[in-house]
């Protein structure tokens, strides 16, 4: 993730079949369009740990899903676990630095972490937080 240093980064665990998907994809696309040229990078990590709501595999199936959803949400990585003993190291770090209502555990799809230009997580947002409501915090860091 070294290539993102010097940028404000929003990290999101995404799912294709969640009730929150449509709004989050639209608003993440809006954020990317509004702030992408100003230094915001959005990193999306598909996760199937919550209700098996991300059944697509990595690669072509993921690309097709995002294209069909008209989601231009930023960089999309391979599917990861965000909780448990197999949680991706990035998520272990994020959860240690920014706890939520369930302690460090990720509650659901579309939990969001805002990371400053130095790579330090500065805020964590609930799955139900509208991405556009994060805009004011993003602007402060840009």
From TrEMBL:
It holds the Pfam family GSHPx. The keyword Oxidoreductase applies. Keywords: Oxidoreductase, Peroxidase. The active site is at residue 18. It comes from the Eukaryota. One of its GO terms (molecular function) is peroxidase activity. SUPFAM superfamilies: Thioredoxin-like (SSF52833). InterPro entries: Glutathione_peroxidase, Thioredoxin-like_sf. The keyword Oxidoreductase applies. GO terms for biological process: response to oxidative stress. Belongs to the glutathione peroxidase family. This is Glutathione peroxidase. It comes from Haematobia irritans (Horn fly).
């Amino acid at each position: 993730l070294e290539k993102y240093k010097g940028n404000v980064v929003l990290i999101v665990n995404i799912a294709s079949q969640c009730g929150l998907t449509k709004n989050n994809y639209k608003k993440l696309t809006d954020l990317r369009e509004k702030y992408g040229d100003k230094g915001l990078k959005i990193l999306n990590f598909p996760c199937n740990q919550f209700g098996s709501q991300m059944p697509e595999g990595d690669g072509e199936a993921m690309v097709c899903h995002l294209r069909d959803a008209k989601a231009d949400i930023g960089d999309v990585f391979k599917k990861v676990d965000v909780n448990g003993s197999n949680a991706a190291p990035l998520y272990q770090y994020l959860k240690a630095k920014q706890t939520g209502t369930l302690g460090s555990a990720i509650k659901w799809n579309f939990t969001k972490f805002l990371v400053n230009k130095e790579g330090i997580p500065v805020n964590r947002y609930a799955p139900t937080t509208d991405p556009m409501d994060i805009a004011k915090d993003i602007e402060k860091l840009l």
